[in-house]
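Illustration 12: Glycoside hydrolase family 3 N-terminal domain-containing protein.
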Amino acid sequence: MAKSDSESDPLWQDLDWAIGQMLIMGWDGTEITPQIRNLIEHHHLGSILLTAKNLKSAEQTAALVQELQTIAHRAGHPQPLLIALDQENGGVNSLFDEDYICQFPSAMGIAAAGSPDLAYTVAKATATEVSAVGVNLILGPVLDVLTNARHQPLGVRAVGDDPQEASQYGIATMNGYKDAGLATCGKHFPSYGNLDFLGSSLDMPIITQTLEELSLSALVPFRNAIATGRLDAMFIGGCGIANAGMNAMHACLSDQVVDDLLRNDLGFTGVAISECLEMESLIQEYGVKGGTVMAVEAGNDLILLCRAHDVQLEAISGLKLGIENGIISKERVYTSLRRVLRMKSACTSWEKALNPAGLSRLSKTHPSHLALSRKAYDQSITVVRDKDGLLPLTQSLLQEEELLLLTPLVKPLPASAATKSMMEKAALKNGGASLHDKWIHQERGAIMSGEGVFRELGRSLARARHGKLLHTSYTANGLRPVHENLINRASAIIIVTADAHRNGYQSGFTKHVAMMCQMLRSTGQKKSLIVVAVSSPYDFAMDKTIGTYMCTFDFTETAMASLVRALYGEFVPQGSMPGTMRKTKKVVKNRQQWLVEAYERERDSNGLDELLKTLARSSTPSLPYVACRAQSFELERFNPSIEECHFVVRNSSTQALYGFIATYFTKGLGAIGALFVDPSKRNVSIGRSLHRRAVKALLQKQGLKKIQLGLSFPGVFPGIPVEESGSVKSWFAKVGWDVQFPRRVSNLAIADLPSWSAPEGLTQSIQRNQISFDLIHSLENGESVLNHVATHASPDVVELYKFALQAQDCGVVRAKSTNETLLGVVIVCKPGSVLATYIPILNTANDGSYGGVVAPVVPATAQSTLLLQGLVFMGVRQNKAHKSAKSIVSWALDDSHELLGAMGFEVQQTFEEITNSPEHWHDLL
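Figure caption equivalent — predicted structure in token form:
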């Protein structure tokens, strides 16, 4: 790759300049300090992290960033500074300005709204705002999967516990950031979604999952985001890893995590950013100098040091010492430099950096962003349960009845008007100290009260009902006489909880009130109870004793305003719980009937290709989507013996396919060869609608004897993938399939064919049993083969053999006895065979060097084990003769994978083929 002008600047030959580009640093203060100026001017610092402690308003931020860039420009920096910011929305926003910067829901709140398009639009709006004040790198999206959702500190910052959903929303968010011109940074690699907190507060939280477990869950969104090619940077977490394959005290200091897992295994070529090296556990363990050198050795390109100037200087000294001692090579430094400079070139320029759009752009976008904010919050509000029909309050609470609001004392979110107001009032009481000074120096107790946020909630509720509201707080002191008196007065009680699973007093208080209300109801009193979780939705998600339970996913003013509108019926909440807890949406939308249309090649093939790419990005690599194309399902053009009829659910305006199902019919066999639904459209009955239409079409075929789930030809899905068979199998059971007696179908491979040799004694056994083999290539000699297959296999396998005998790059190996009786057959195909289009596992090599041994058909006899191994051996010999790198056996039945394992094959994919009688769907006849 040719170097850009910025990369070839002779200034970078000075190692001090190169080292400066490998550091990202911050400071405390809303104005430029001598220390941060010194770092930019004399230590050539190339990247700045801004936090809430630096930012007072949009106007001040734009001026501050412009001043930082001006200092760098005057100091001779060839490229502008990277200006990084955490602006995740929800509870994590470094910049807040109610006049110009909008508040949007958290990642989980956006996912609750159920729209990746909304995630994209919100992310683009957020990025547009922070870009206007000069930010060019946003620390997002969060790609963590909450594997252990109830006990993780990330909470609503993550999408949820489903890897595919986390991928879908993470990538949508990333695309929104990118399309607004910002560089993106996925976090927190390898995962903050399932941490064990052991030992003292100085110890690192630990990941205990194995690499295999991580690969199937936590790493899926990271892998998929990397695969898009649009992720510029990756934030390496500050956690430990302890499992059988890896042992690292600090992930960001481990080459196993950065160089091996992130770069070699997942193929990431962007900028790796370390966790802040000022964390106490790291300082105590290694010291800043040693930690900085280790971080670079591990493969990090940007080393984060948040704010302590003496520590920052120590880190610079440590890097220089590491180079002098030969621990860090110059090439290592310049590798990181190139990555950082390329990211800068993509997201900034001096023209852009020195002239931020500022308030003029923010003024133009603010009205539309406010409307988007309200829309997003309204769509995220979720009613998990309303067993007693208490919502809306306009229908369940009379005007003369009293409403009680009980709220916890919690720390308000930094990005809120309530916090800002509290700070300004506190500053006046303390001799006019600045808001920023109070932010830094105030005692913890001074900001623990969230009364400002919830007091405004109370006022809004009172205004909405045009009447009186009772409102008081509750604490760890539990249910007090004041609470009991108010509960006795009120006809309806709303309890707010915020992370009750981490604040046990909230859970205890709420359950106590629920029991009290139940007792009072038993005496004939009206005591309606509504619980609202304003942070983690898991507080009472599984506690059915709480009959009416709502979630808002954060407690900003905008969220609370949407909550009031939902409580009083201005809109019907449509949000749903995240990931595997997505119950509400299923209940609401399972009855939905989708318009199913017949698949049309010219109209739908491009949409099907895009759907397959989406599925490949959001599934495990062992599933066949990546090598599959629309034409993989199209057989009828060259095979009149097979009737095919495929169906789609699509968006007729955008031509996007939401779902696809493939059906085939030949010689009494009706089969479903594939059923796909876009991951973002699952759980809303698309699959059910497609399945019902497909089965109905098959039942109308004359002479139908059985219906099969899974197909050898095309062999995209020979059955239900075993690695997904739990939930998928139960889904098919619910739509009418008897799944109790599946047939196991496996695909296997010899990974290193050139060095493979036959098992000892195999050829001698074949000779002793007087079995001979030959290879035929045409239908002229194939009648006996097709008769044999028709006798011992299903009609789809017959069509597979018929196709192979007509293909120039395929053949059939026959096993025969001494009297020329046919004993068994197998298909053999060259690398890059036409058959690979329809059997994706043959088409997964980039260089097309996989040979195939497909669909061995051997009847059950005393010789069947030897016949199978002999046929496969002959096929492998053919593959080897054709210089194949691998030999693939496709469609090995039942326990034959064990016999082939003894020959050196390893299982790649396993499926369960299901066959039923048409009577299972008699209601559709």
